[in-house]
Amino acid sequence: MCGIMGYIGDRDTTKIILDGLAKHEYRGYDSAGIAVIKDGVIHELRTTGRVHQLAEKAAKEHFNGDFGIGHTRWATHGGVTENNAHPHMSSDSRVVLVHNGIIENAREIRADLEAEGIRFHTETDTESAVQYLAWVYKGDPKEAIVKLTKRIRGAFALVIMFYDKPNEI
Ligand code: GLU
């Protein structure tokens, strides 16, 4: 069972998210990650280790941002690798998300998007959702998310950020 987090507020974004992920640890996980947006740019940090290792990495890199999301993963699609760890970002760097669950028609969505020239970078079912969102995103997150929920099948809880929507999750 994975854990998902999102934080918007005046406090230390990275610390709040990492503390939240640590509280989810008892549920079990194989990898962890965090993404923040700072001045309109998405930054990610991921590891196949424990949350405290992610925290050490974050401290070393002075990793922080204006708001963010986090994830502890229990892999269902794709191996336990740093590259498959969430959050996942679209190839155009405009959308980033974490996902709990399974997207059953991920292969079909991936094939359609690859035929449109979009390059995938992971083995996960989740990537199909973020690439699809970026594909349909024209500046209105709600409109894009409604399109996404009509396209994907399965069980999913998603926490999503768009690069140009400050303080919106
Ligand atoms: N199906 C996704 C993956 O394998 C999410 C798994 C989860 O809920 O942690 O990355």
What does this protein look like?
- With 169 residues, the chain is of the alpha+beta class.
- The protein has helices at 13-23, 51-60, 106-115, 126-136, 141-151; strands at 3-8, 31-38, 41-47, 67-73, 88-89, 95-103, 154-162.
- The strands form 2 sheets. Strands 1-4-2-3 form a 4-stranded antiparallel sheet, with helices on one face. The chain has a 3-stranded antiparallel sheet with strand order 5-6-7.
- Helix 1 runs antiparallel to helix 2, helix 3 (106-115) crosses helix 4 and helix 4 crosses helix 5 (141-151).
- The structure holds glutamic acid (GLU).
- Glutamic acid is lined by residues 2, 73-78, 99-102, 124-126.
- Glutamic acid binds next to strand 6.
Give a brief outline of the structure.
The chain has 169 residues and is an alpha+beta fold. It has helices spanning 13-23, 51-60, 106-115, 126-136, 141-151, and strands at residues 3-8, 31-38, 41-47, 67-73, 88-89, 95-103, 154-162.
Overall outline: globular
The mean pLDDT is 97
Heterogens: glutamic acid
What percentage of amino acids are in beta strands? 25-35%
* Count of runs of 4 or more consecutive helical residues: 5
Write the layout of secondary structure elements.
Elements: E1 3-8, H1 13-23, E2 31-38, E3 41-47, H2 51-60, E4 67-73, E5 88-89, E6 95-103, H3 106-115, H4 126-136, H5 141-151, E7 154-162
Antiparallel strand pairs: 1-4, 2-3, 2-4, 5-6, 6-7
The structure holds glutamic acid.
Keywords:
four-stranded antiparallel beta sheet, binds glutamic acid, single chain, 169 residues, 5 helices, alpha+beta, three-stranded antiparallel beta sheet
